[in-house]
Amino acid sequence: MTANRASRFNRRLLIRGAAAGAAVPAVLPTAAQAATGTVPRAPRNPDATTSDAKTSNAGTSNAKTSDATFQWLGTSGWRIDTGGGRTILFDPYLSRFETGLFKKSFNPKTPLTTDGATIDRHIGRPELILVSHSHWDHLNDVPYIAAAAPDARIVGTETTYHLLRALGVDKARIAVVRGGEVLDFDGLVVEAVSSRHSRNDSYSYFAPGTLTGPPPRPQTVSDLPEGDTLAFHVTLPDGLSAFLMGASDFSERDAAGLRPDVAMIATPSTPATHRYAPRLLKALGYPATVVPVHWDNFELPLDEGAHRDPTIDLDGFIARIREASPGSRILLPEYATPYRF
Q: Which of 181, 178, 88 is nearest to 133 (CA)?
């Protein structure tokens, strides 16, 4: 994942969504998209999205669009707002400080810092925070968010639990899961899914390690080990289901049969995982919408827009998604842009 400062991603490949707070584009297919797996584009007038899609695609004319909105927070992070005014965060990393990772000069002793102003602009009033694993680009901002949203409950691994305890989060607010748990938060159903971390060229992964007790207070990025990896299958009160990944490997047996409506899947940086895209999409039942994530340079400010990590073959990954699941719509998201599915 190391590289010089990433160049801005080819904007012609990005779906143009409405700006945050504006009208929300619904991600619905045309007949041609469903047949070919073409990356759809939201029209310039988002108010036309639903009506145009319904009239041009008889096969989905009766499909319901959820009232929930999904906003990509960069890396693998998401903010989900239900139609009932409830907010869920997944891997919310917004501080995006410089470690040298994308400049071939990674410093594992980079101090952990938080950008409170940016976090405050994007998190809303979350009642639930889901954490896939404990690396800094997933966990770093969770203690700050926990203090800013004192009623929010956090769900993560035992390592996440111990790190958050060391960072001052009340243990009563943290639910430890291993994978297989199906939790009902007053009609919001969260299934923890045992998953795996992304593989590098050596078939290993960055900063492995698990904790069985609270460490000294973490100070640097090297103090946050992976600590096992989870995915989450979230079913909203209106019935829409989403699969959320924080890293680009998975347990095929644990993912099998989930059948989410939309899958946020992490983009791999190497071919180390055998047939990653076809095996994952088959296990998930070929979701109606697939959203690649974790392909961006997460050390640049969020307000600059998404810059592509040039070490990741995003175009090739999209092609493999199309080949494996030609009926799926592929949404390449923009930061902090609300989408409905």
A: 178
d(CA 195, CA 251): 5
Write out 129-175 in H/E/C secondary structure: EECCCCCHHHHCCHHHHHHHCCCCEEEECHHHHHHHHHCCCCHHHEE
Nearest to 243 by CA among 229, 267, 261, 226: 261
pTM for the model: 0.84
Name the packing angle between helices 276-283 and 314-324 (round to 10°): 40
Pairing of strands 153-156, 174-176: parallel
So what's the pLDDT on residue 62? 54
- pLDDT of 22 strictly over 80: no
Per-residue pLDDT tens digits for 101-126 = 999 999 999 999 999 999 999 999 99
CA quadruple 325, 329, 333, 337: dihedral positive or negative?
A: negative
Please report the pLDDT score of residue 296 as a whole number: 97
Q: State whether residue 86 is helix, strand or coil.
A: coil
Q: What is the 3-state secondary structure (H, E, C) of 5-68?
A: CCCECCHHHCCCCCCCCCCCCECCCCHHHHHHCCCCCCCCCHHHHHHHHHHHCHHHCCCCCCCC
Q: Of the candidates 234, 249, 311, 316, which has an alpha carbon nearest to the alpha carbon of residue 70?
A: 234
Which segments within 163-310 are labelled E, that is strand?
A: 174-176, 182-185, 188-196, 229-235, 241-244, 249-250, 262-266, 289-293
Those residues with Cβ within 8 angstroms of residue 198's Cβ, 6 or more apart along the chain or in another chain = 205, 206, 247, 248, 249, 266, 268, 269, 270
Query: Which of these, 36, 89, 23, lies nearest to 318 by C-alpha position?
Result: 36
C-alpha gyration radius of the chain: 19
